[in-house]
Amino acid sequence: MGFHLRREEVLDGDALKAMLEENPARAAQAVLLAAGQGVLEAQALLGQILLDGQGIEQDPALALRWFRIAANGGHLMARNMLGRCLEHGWGGASDARAAAQEYRLAAEGGLDWGLYNYANLLATGRGVVEDQVTALACYRRAAELGHAKSMNLLGRYLEDGRFCPVDLVTACEWYRRSAEGGDFRGQFSYAAVLAERGQFDQAQGWLRQALAAGNLKFLRAARQALLAAVHPEIRALALDYHEHAALLGDETDAAALQALAG
Predict the structure, then answer these.
(1) Are 102 and 71 in contact, with CB atoms under 8 Å apart?
(2) Do residues 257 and 241 lie in contact, with contact meaning Cβ atoms separated by under 8 Å?
(3) Of 260, 262, 202, 212, which Cα lies nearest the Cα of 234?
(4) 257, 190, 249: which is closest to 216 by C-alpha?
(5) 3-state helix/strand/coil string of the chain
(6) pLDDT tens readout for residues 60-93
(7) What is the pLDDT of residues 92-122, one digit of tens each?
(8) What is the rounded distance in angstroms from the CA atom of residue 232 to the CA atom of residue 203?
(9) Is this structure's pTM higher than 0.85?
(10) Mind listing the pLDDT tens digit for each residue in 226-252?
(11) What does the alpha-carbon distance between residue 17 and residue 34 come to, in Å, rounded to a whole number?
């Protein structure tokens, strides 16, 4: 099967997914051709597949160049990904200040991921002066756009009353929406609320979903939180979190599991 892409076609969605699944290398060549012809979406996508090494040799430096080309053409996600490269040093030196500028532009364009990433820097004072009020506003706007990770963080601000009035009802609603949106940290937060209400079966269900999706950093923090849980039904899941962390982690995770099991 050949791939015949018209210049005006947008190279994402179901058609692109099918291409990448059937023959990643051929799909990458189609994207490369379209990017060279000036198709903005293809330029942004080329940056992503170069960053991931999907169907093409991984090249973070070249990925950064294509993200910059697409960003300068007005592609908001490419602008956000340019910020990610600059923040994490993918394809060049890490530069949090330059990353913040790119995230800010993506945020000003209304991109949920741009709002989220810019808020993260504002909340921690990386590359910008710490500004919790503006960070909260960005998280709120991203959450209202449907960004699941921002929903969870907005819930935390509301639960803790940080730079806003305490609102436990609304915090719980944002946790629920984050959990249903697939964010593992939101699932963990919502499970904590359900456990406090005595809804242990539902809480355990969300904790198992968070366990399946969570990364190592999350698992390490979550296992400690579960060990300190008041309710034995919830505390029992700490062993599962330790076991999963041991599969993903290093000897310290294996030792932590052994200490708990022993």
Answers:
(1) yes
(2) no
(3) 202
(4) 249
(5) CCCCCCCCCCCCHHHHHHHHHHCHHHHHHHHHHHHHCCCHHHHHHHHHHHHHCCCCCCCHHHHHHHHHHHHHCCCHHHHHHHHHHHHHCCCCCCCHHHHHHHHHHHHHCCCHHHHHHHHHHHHHCCCCCCCHHHHHHHHHHHHHCCCHHHHHHHHHHHHHCCCCCCCHHHHHHHHHHHHHCCCHHHHHHHHHHHHHCCCHHHHHHHHHHHHHHCCHHHHHHHHHHHHCCCCHHHHCCHHHHHHHHHHHCCHHHHHHHHHHHC
(6) 999 999 999 999 999 999 999 999 999 999 999 9
(7) 999 999 999 999 999 999 999 999 999 999 9
(8) 12
(9) yes
(10) 999 999 999 999 999 999 999 999 999
(11) 16
d(CA 227, CA 238): 6
Q: Which residue has the tokens 């198992």?
A: 208
Residue type present at position 22: E
Among residues 240, 209, 213, 245, the alpha carbon closest in space to that of 227 is found at 240
* Tokens (6 digits) for 182: 């697939």
Residues 11 and 39: beta-carbon distance below 8 Å:
yes
Measured distance CA(247)–CA(190) in Å, rounded: 25
| Residue bearing tokens 């009802």 | 169
CB atoms within 10 A of CB 197: 11
Sign of CA dihedral 193, 195, 198, 199: positive
Backbone conformation region of residue 50, classed left if phi is above 0, alpha if psi is from -120 to 50, else beta: alpha
- Which residue carries 């309710």 as its tokens? 231
Which pLDDT score is estimated for 154? Answer: 98
